[in-house]
Amino acid sequence: MNQVCLAVPSEDGMDIYSATQDSNSCQYAASLVIDKPMNYVNITVPRLGGAFGGKGSDSSTVVAATSLAAYLSKRPVRLSFDLSTNIRTFGKRPPYKATYKAGFNKDGKVQVVEIEFISDVGFHEGGCFFTTYTMGYMDMCYFVPNWKVTGRSVMTNKRVMVAVRAPGSVPAALVSESIFEHVSRALNKHPTIVKELNLYQSEQKDLAGHVLVRCTVRELWRRLKDTAEVDARIRQVDAFNQDNMWKKRGITMTTCKYGMCYFGNGHGATVTIFAKDGSVQISQGGVEMGQGLYTKVAQGVAHILGVPLEKIKVRPNQGIISPNNIGSGGSIANESSMQAAIGAAEILKERMRPIREKFPEANWKELCQKSAAGKLDLTARFLNQHQMGSPYVNYHTYCIAVTETEVDILTGESQIRRVDIMADYGESLNPMIDIGQTEGGFVMGLGNFLTEDTLFDSKTGRILTDGTWNYKPPTTKDIPIDWRIHLLPDTPNPSGIRSSKATGEPSIALSVGGLLANKLALESARKDLLGKDDFIPVVAPFTVERAQQSVGLNESILAV
């Protein structure tokens, strides 16, 4: 996750190797600081060990500093940040504070919601984008006839905030799901009952003004509720809580409606066939960050050309071969880069068609050799030009989760006993990768909602939690004990690339269920120990300390 860059001066330019999501912006930044045109700079991005937004715009400053030092010294310069320096120097997910009011009938049908929230964007107004972005996600998967959402940005003495995986849906999920959990508590109903009553249906218009065509959220909810045996498990949780004083369980369901937008220029790809052995090389504009981009790109080209995957090599992102690309973020890079590579492969396939028709019995290697002998150009380039939807979203990814947890009331420590997820990913391009992205997103969200507390010096704005002694990302002990993930079948997405949907960011919002299930367990403890049947206000991350203190235990209860 740390920022790193190597700049190597050469006789005719500058070669830069950067761990960045946005090579085009970094190439431009380097050219500016050394006062050279962009064609003087060749930037290469082999791969990243994770990014999630932190290696977007922030990488440009690292590249600029490294490039300038290399240019002035005429020597290779490598800049690498240790974890503590990285945390102190670069941006974070913006903090939010929200208040809400909700009006509902006795059945739990919510009629009106009013939300006011503020977003801490740091010392520069550039982070105000996140406030607007979050406003459009406040409904998540719930239809309410009357919304009023007011978002405000505040500038503070903190470092400028940046996009972090699913920057709008994550804070919105906490607010939205909390509202419906609060309504449930007021009506003395389980949250699953109230939430199900308020789910969107196809053709309804969401908060951001999009008509939800092919909305599968009710189908996902119905299937998962049945598959995960939610009603029976709610009864089991209630029985466990009646029989146990110092350990309590909670179970809830959470939703995500993630709007996928093809923003920016798009991604380009160049596909080259080497005639002598028939091997294929792909150079494309996306960045591999562990999300399986190279695999999906290779799959697409292999399918079009009809060659085995082992014949294909995906090369690193290079500015001189694949220039002018939008950065890899917002879950668009996999789809867009694959479509660009497919477009180039289709050009080659059509170019080689007369040779194939003339020599129908030729194998792939022979076909390539005969194409070269026929003076065909075996290199093709294609730019996947993005077209935004109306108002701006091209389609929505929907997913539902059931989360069951157990909390130690005396310590506040919790275990995630079981998680069931069902997602509508259209026609998945690679189910193994998509399930892996779902798992990774969910665990990352658990850190956001349960463990990763960030503290700042109130006078200077300096971050105080700058290492693993006091900043706690989730580890292997924090993942669900029992984890079951299902993909909704037979749901092709005509608005997506090859009928697929984005998978990298939607699932992170579902992990708010870990916080909410813990809160239900603690509310059960308050009722049994203190006779207080009330709603615990939501604070994220809902750390061990906050969980333990929220019960309000006193010495008289602990006396033997």
UniProtKB/TrEMBL annotation:
Domain Aldehyde oxidase/xanthine dehydrogenase first molybdopterin binding: 3-199
Occurrences of domain Aldehyde oxidase/xanthine dehydrogenase second molybdopterin binding (ranges): 224-480
Keyword Iron-sulfur among UniProt keywords: yes
ATP-binding among keywords: no
Any one GO molecular-function label of the UniProt entry: 2 iron, 2 sulfur cluster binding
Listed cofactors: [2Fe-2S] cluster; Mo-molybdopterin
InterPro entries associated with the record: Ald_Oxase/xanthine_DH-like (IPR016208), AldOxase/xan_DH_MoCoBD1 (IPR008274), AldOxase/xan_DH_MoCoBD2 (IPR046867), AldOxase/xan_DH_Mopterin-bd_sf (IPR037165)
Keywords associated with the record: 2Fe-2S, Iron, Iron-sulfur, Metal-binding, Molybdenum
Family label: Belongs to the xanthine dehydrogenase family.
Protein name (Swiss-Prot/TrEMBL): Xanthine dehydrogenase/oxidase
Source species of the chain: Elysia marginata
